[in-house]
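Input chain follows. Return structure tokens only.
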Amino acid sequence: MTTVAAYAAAAAKAPLERTTIERRAVGEFDVLIDIKFVGICHSDIHQAREGWGEAVFPMVPGHEIAGVVAEVGPGVRRFKVGDHVGVGCMVDSCRECENCRAGLEQFCVQRPTWTYNAVGKDGKPTYGGYSQKIVVDENYVLRIPDGLALDVAAPLMCAGITTYSPFRYWNVGPGKRVAVVGLGGLGHMAVKIAHAMGAEVTVLSQSLRKKEDGLRLGADHYYATGDPATFDNLRGTFDVILNTVSAPLDYDAFLSLLRTGGAMVTVGMPEEPVQIQFSSLFGNRRSLTSSSIGGIRETQEMLDFCAEHGLGADIELIRADQINEAYERVGRSDVRYRFVIDTATI
């Protein structure tokens, strides 16, 4: 085992503080990664504050990991020392169920082993990327293509795949009208990816404060949802609405913006219950649905797509001792558009 420095929350809502954790010895099929950068995802905050229910503490968050291979086990064939690699939201799954066999490990019937706030098959808690190193089975490690810098690639491990996967599933491309609700860590990647796929992209945000950014990122249109006229003017417009915000919305109003057969896909998960009127779904075969991350194969596909199109996250690089401040700023939407921790500062 190896002792490494990390930042952890000792209990729900406790500030994250520097500590040390143990990483397992490198096994036959393991990859030891020197973590260089790790993104701060809003889900880190939800979990560290137990906003989504009971959690495992002490907690080392972080599932947007980018780094360099430092060691490989004797059975590893896909990676070598020096490779640029990433780790996303999961580090294992049952590997035997129908979903795992289909490359949908995120829907593992036995539940995936999440990168943090989980218990692994060895009975020990998993610790995430707010740390210097991590050991991961090679089957759950992603290759970061040449041309993608590690700092801007790190958020792709969650924000990238969380938006790419539903666009692929709902066949976003030329001729499709896509709306992105919210221009934050997820939303800004959704705009970039949908634009690169060839769709007509609209941002729906509370105000026009980020309009210039939205258009720069690839949006064709930008509307303020705080203006009631927006919902009148855009009624029946979109094939797909991707909701990236993790706060309750007026779902009935947003569903009215879908074309016949359109889908509103939610990837942000509010802590509070939400309500809809089922009448909003009837009559036009509209769907209100959700999407998670993607499987390992699809996540690699996303990374290759982003490299091909020159897509990385817009980031603000911070020191590890700024994590608690960053959490507060995320809550105020005061980041454009993803905080990334330089792990050399841990």
